[in-house]
Amino acid sequence: MSLVDELLADFSPSPSPVQSRSASPEPQLSYSEEQRGGHNACNGILAELDSTARLLSQLNPLLDQIDKYSENPERASGNVEDNPEYKLLVEVNDLAADITNEIAALHKYVAEKYRPRFPELESLVLNPIEYAKTVKVIGNDISTIKDKQNELAEFLQAAIIMVLTVSALTSSSRQLTHEELKGTNESSDLLLFLDSAKRKITQYVSTKLSVFAPNTAALVGSQTAAQLFGAAGGLNGLLKLPSCNIPSLGAKRNQTNIGLGNTGIRQQGFLYFCPIIQSIPMDLRRQALRILSGKVALSTRVDLAHTALDGAQGLKMKQEVEEKLEKLGIPPSNKGPKALPAPDDKPSKKRGGKRIRKYKQQFAMTDLRKAQNRMRFGEQDGDYID
């Protein structure tokens, strides 16, 4: 019996344990009786993670229904809200937010358990999924990280692996006991199982959004629409969000700036990684996010009103967005050098009037000076010798 099954058995009304689904592509969590017997670590996890058990009791039946509808798809007809598959779609999307919160809680639990062995790991690997995988690979012997680089390279960047290797050599820590290591591995398995279930839900929603939200899927793509749908809690949740908050859905802190360029865009959520935004230059992406998020808010209203079921409005909005972005990318036209205006050499205007004439008379030549300067015609002037 797996740990997931044991958790479900405690909260299930039937005495028989829930069988693990072999047809599911997610990794199965299997624990032998020798691993569970004689240790209190598993019982401690059962007592501490009761919220995870309640979540799994709701999650497994929904995953079975997803398998059922994936194998035998039904054609949507009549009112969409009366379709049982649409109700399942809304239910699994509501549960996706709970899965995200539970993954964060499990990440905190695993970090607390593994901190005595490698305290620096929590600040170096911020992503919960990558942290759990790193814990599973490293285990209790952190000095062999260099020998496990190939396994770590499957989900970590080379720069982070190098920092981990150096940090492990200088880390002051202690070895975990067998019970502590077992509890850490089991909670990491639970975290990875919830992540695989969430990815399965997102994939299922993305395939069904072309039926239940055709315009939003046509605008940003099925995968991005499913991610927005899951983060906001369905069409109703996405409808209540203002367009300026839509780019923030799915945004998380950069894990490290080593080897990564700074884009200058803070809201790098699900919408930022859709094909429309990624296909334009970096300097136009901020404006493109504002334009596209406004159209997503409009397409959500169209889908909720159950109009344009063929996705025509979504395609029209997508064409409008592409035209606007194309205009933004056109460089400004070169008008050439502009000649300066011809200089105006007119004499400056002088003020006239009684006051100005009176002012000028103070500096005018007197009659006596005029008489002195006058010369008589035909008379010889005398010579004056000093």
Overview in brief:
By secondary structure, the chain is mainly alpha-helical.
List keywords for this structure.
Serum Albumin, Chain A, Domain 1, Helix Hairpins, Nop_C, RNA binding, mainly alpha, RNA-binding, single chain, 386 residues, 3 domains, mRNA processing
Largest sheet composition:
none
The SS-based structural class is: mainly alpha
Number of helices: 18
Radius of gyration based on Cα positions: 39 Å
Termini separation: 141 Å
Question: Beta-strand level of the residues, as a percent range?
Answer: under 5%
Helical residue percent band: 55-70%
Please give the number of β-strands: 0
Query: Low-confidence parts, pLDDT < 50 over ≥5 residues?
Result: 10-43, 255-261
Mean pLDDT: 79
Order of helices and strands: HHHHHHHHHHHHHHHHHH
Q: How would the global form be characterised?
A: elongated
User: Please, how many domains?
Assistant: 3
Overview of the molecule:
The chain has 386 residues and is mostly helical. It folds into three domains: 1-74 and 81-116 and 190-209, no CATH class; 117-175, Orthogonal Bundle (Helix Hairpins), CATH 1.10.287.4070; 213-255 and 266-330, Orthogonal Bundle (Serum Albumin, Chain A, Domain 1), CATH 1.10.246. The protein is 57% helix and 0% strand. It contains 18 helices and no strands. It is elongated.
